[in-house]
Amino acid sequence: MPGVEDYRKQQVREYLEFDEAAKLPPTLATMYPELADEFEVKEWHCPECDHTKTWSEVSEPPDADSEPICDQCAKRSSSLSLMQVSLDSDR
């Protein structure tokens, strides 16, 4: 995931211990699963449709520089593609 490679485990741990209301972001929970066992992890929110999932339900992104794929967006995209194929075949 872009932008988080500079967060060292000890820095993250110290922050979470200092601020009791803080939650571990899903990206860092994936990087440091042992911290996810100790601290609460935020839900993942899709930036496109605002669908949420627990961090453990989020599948790995296709590559390290991309976001995880949202099931809801994938279903909608699949439905739209099928509709387009259907419309194209009617012509």
| Main beta sheet | 2 strands, antiparallel
Name the poorly predicted regions: 80-91
Helix vs. strand class: mainly alpha
How many structural domains are formed by the residues?
A: 1
**Element pattern in H and E:** HHHEEH
Computed Rg: 18 Å
Average pLDDT metric: 77
Number of helices: 4
Report how far apart the termini are: 43 Å
Strand proportion, as a percent range, falls in under 5%
Tell me the layout of helices and strands.
Blueprint: H1 9-18, H2 26-31, H3 33-38, E1 44-45, E2 52-53, H4 71-89
Antiparallel strand pairs: 1-2
What can you see in these coordinates?
With 91 residues, the chain is mainly alpha-helical. 45% of the residues lie in helices and 4% in strands. The protein has one domain (9-89). The chain has helices at 9-18, 26-31, 33-38, 71-89, and strands spanning 44-45, 52-53. It has a two-stranded antiparallel ribbon. The longest helix has 19 residues, at 71-89. The chain is elongated. It starts with 8 loop residues before the first helix and ends with a helix. One of its GO terms (molecular function) is exonuclease activity. It comes from Halapricum desulfuricans. This is CRISPR-associated protein Cas4, RecB family exonuclease. Keywords: Exonuclease, Hydrolase, Nuclease, Plasmid.
Keywords, please?
91 residues, mainly alpha
